[in-house]
């Protein structure tokens, strides 16, 4: 399995869809999985159950997804068991985008509950998660100023090189 992690707006969904096509593997987005599992949008879950409730659903979804390319929610690394699950079941790829890039991509996005906070809260969230992503990652791909296709090609290259290193 290949897990894509990174801050909201880093390109996990877009890259995940391209990656699954190139690798001919199943594709799952954990946020969409949670929405289908609960019959609610992420915003509705946050409104009714808070972040903690959403993280419980997200962890359950992660445990149920058993193959393919998986685009995760930005906060999946907030729960240490989620990171352990990903690391034991596949390769974790961190799509690393700068806060400036994220701000540009999400400036008009009203659908993300944790983005619609003060600038200070966003920066604190970004800083805290950045460290968690780095710790969880098997592969890191910088995404600033790259197209989704370029990012996908870099992931494929790094995956291939990783296989060669493990075969020696």
Brief account:
60% of the residues lie in helices and 12% in strands.
Structural class, from helix and strand content? alpha/beta
Number of helices: 7
Mean pLDDT: 90
Instruction: Work out the count of structural domains.
Output: 1
Given the C-alpha coordinates, what overall shape results? globular
**Would you identify the regions where 5 or more consecutive residues have pLDDT less than 50?**
none
CATH architecture: 3-Layer(aba) Sandwich
CATH class: Alpha Beta
Name the beta content range. 5-15%
Task: Describe the overall structure.
- This protein has one domain: Rossmann fold, CATH 3.40.50.
- The model has no long low-confidence stretch (mean pLDDT 90).
- By secondary structure, the chain is of the alpha/beta class.
- It has seven helices and five strands.
- It has a five-stranded parallel sheet, with helices on both faces.
Task: Kindly list the characteristics that best describe this protein.
168 residues; alpha/beta; Rossmann fold; five-stranded parallel beta sheet; 60% helix; globular
């Amino acid at each position: 399995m290949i897990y894509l992690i990174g801050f909201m707006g880093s390109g996990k969904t877009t890259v995940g869809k391209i990656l699954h096509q190139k690798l001919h593997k199943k594709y799952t987005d954990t946020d969409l999985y949670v929405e289908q599992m609960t019959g609610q949008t992420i915003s509705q879950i946050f409104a009714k159950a808070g972040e903690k409730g959403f993280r419980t659903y997200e962890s359950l979804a992660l445990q149920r997804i058993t193959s393919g390319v998986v685009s995760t929610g930005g906060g999946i690394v907030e729960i240490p068991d989620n990171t352990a699950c990903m690391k034991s079941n596949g390769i974790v790829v961190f799509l690393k985008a700068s806060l400036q890039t994220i701000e540009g991509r999400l400036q008009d996005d009203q659908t993300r509950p944790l983005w619609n906070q003060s600038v200070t809260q966003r920066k604190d969230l970004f800083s805290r998660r950045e460290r968690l992503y780095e710790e969880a990652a098997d592969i890191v791909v910088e995404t600033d100023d790259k197209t989704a296709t370029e990012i996908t090609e870099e992931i494929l290259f790094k995956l291939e090189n990783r296989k060669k290193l493990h075969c020696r």
